[in-house]
Amino acid sequence: MAETMRMRVYGKHPTCASLTRLEERRSRRLALRLDRNRKPDKPEDFVCYESSDDEEETVMEGRQYLKTSFNFVDYVRARETNTKEVRKINQEYGSRHILTHDLFKEYPITLTNMNKVFCSQWLSDRQVVFGTKCNKLMVYDVATQKLDQIPSLYGRNASTNNAATVEQQSGIHSVQINPSRTLLSTGGRNCNEIAIYRLPTLDPVCVGENGHRDWVFDMCWLDDEFLVSGSRDTKMTLWHINNELATASDKADVPKPESIQPVCVKECRSAQKVRALVFNKAINEIAALSLNCYIHIWSAETFKQKISRKLPACQENVCLAVQDGGVYAVGCRSYTLLLDARTLQPIKKIPSRYTGCGIRSASFQGSVLTIGTGLGMLMFYDVRAQKYLESSINSNRTVVLKASKGYVFPDEEFMDGVQNVKYTPAIYTHCYDASGTRLFTAGGPLPANFYGNYAGLWQ
Question: Which residue intervals correspond to the WD repeats (predicted)?
Fold first, then answer.
């Protein structure tokens, strides 16, 4: 969980330098080595050898281990006193421990008459921003449980006569924050435009016009100034929000959004409706997912399309996630597909544990893949162990979070009669806070013609 290189205060060694620790470590390594050297009845197809198997522990390694404390209390104290002790912590330990020990509890959030939450992001440790199908950009305060609506931005071309009505608006499908957390990008009042807000005040900065002719489905930041958006018109658009533009609203008494034009607009070849975008920082590439079951790779440096690959037997692929180590996760109707980012070859097909369970959202929290489904459940897959996360309380079952019903119109009894199954909301979006110990989930009814919403905070 945590490692801290302790510095001695007095004497020759720090308090954690006990020789019994070294003896216990050597006995554990010896037992592990004997277990690996034991020949199995059936040879395994894949065997991994570590360098430590053939080498004895050196004196320097033993001294280094004696000075290292794995106590979380030592880590916290070193951080509080800001000492020069080298320390590191496993960021995913908290969320993994809470999940496997069934400590998450849902606190439902009432959203009154809003329709389907499509996207969300944590603004801070107490605020969550999310966008809805009814084109509302909302901020939820987890401490006071209050909701505030942020005014939608519109460009110069919008007027009273040609502005999209509520019935014609497709909703806000994406909310993204740049790496320095100074700007927020989302959809504008016109579903073909993008809107940029300054953080943490959420003052309007600019509106991106003439980049798309159809709904903007997703966007991703390349750095603090460059943004890429993908649309239903199969276009990929590059935007530049420079520092002068981002800080201009600070000087104005009443912030007013500027209008910006795209740096570059290109068609995503072999694509039909760009549905999801992610930026792979490890190899500096943009991955785009289209509804005709293709994944497309673009160079982030030149903004040119490099590869398009047909996904094997995918249906309803609507979500895409990337792991820091370079693995893509594609959510489909009945399974989640893991792809090698370097070759786009399928690594693993993760079948859903429930029939008719469409994958609607996906995200990586370290080595744990969180999967939001169309049946109101969240599942958790351990990529390293190659299996669903198992409960430490009951080893016979996997970790699953079941969402509450939220609000739906027509009512639940009517929907139960129409679908012949018990109504559950679809999890269209979920996001962890910076600590990984709180999870925001939201969505609504799966049928497009039904009105309703769901939101919950797990902590």
Answer: 209-249
Closest CA to 224 of 196, 201, 261: 196
Measured CA to CA, the distance from residue 265 to residue 237 in angstroms comes to 4
What whole-number distance in Å separates Cα of residue 301 and Cα of residue 451?
Answer: 42
Residue whose pair of structure tokens reads 């398009």 in the numeric block: 308
Taking the C-alpha atoms of residue 371 and residue 213, their distance in angstroms, rounded to an integer, is 31
Distance CA 137, CA 432 (A): 19
pLDDT band at 168 (very low <50, low <70, confident <90, very high): very low
How many whole angstroms separate alpha carbon 296 and alpha carbon 288? 5
Phi/psi at 78 (5° precision): -65, -35
Task: Supply the pLDDT for residue 165.
Answer: 45
Farthest-apart Cα atoms in the chain, separation: 81
3-state secondary structure of 436: coil
User: Tokens 């497709």 appear where?
Assistant: 170
Beta strand pairing call for 175-177 and 183-187:
antiparallel
Of 246, 218, 214, 250, whose CA–CA distance to 232 is shortest? 214
Contacts of 428 (CB under 8 A, 6+ apart): 116, 117, 118, 119, 360, 361, 372, 442, 443, 444
pLDDT digits (tens, 9 = 90+) for 295-337: 999 999 999 999 999 998 777 888 999 998 789 999 988 889 9
Separation of alpha carbons 441 and 427, rounded Å: 7
Q: How far apart, in whole angstroms, are the C-alpha atoms of residue 116 and residue 366?
A: 28
Strand order in the sheet with 235-240: 216-221, 226-231, 235-240, 264-267
Q: Which tens digit of pLDDT belongs to each residue from 9-60?
A: 666 677 777 778 777 878 887 887 777 677 666 666 555 565 554 556 777 8
SS3 category, 98: helix
pLDDT of residue 14: 76
Bridge partners, 377 (sequence order) = 402
Do residues 234 and 268 make contact, with C-beta atoms less than 8 angstroms apart?
A: yes
pLDDT per residue as tens digits for the range 58-99: 778 777 777 787 777 877 877 787 777 777 777 777 888 899
* Residue 285, amino acid: E
R_g of the chain, CA atoms, integer Å:
25
Instruction: Report residue 191 CA to chain centroid gap.
Output: 23
> 200: cis peptide before it, omega within 30°?
yes
d(CA 270, CA 311): 12
Place of tokens 């953080």: 199
DSSP character at residue 19: H
pTM > 0.70: yes
Given a contact cutoff of 8 angstroms between Cβ atoms, the answer to whether 417 and 425 are in contact is: no
What is the model's pLDDT at position 160?
43
Estimate the share of the chain in helix, then strand, then coil, as percent rounded to the nearest 5. 15, 40, 50
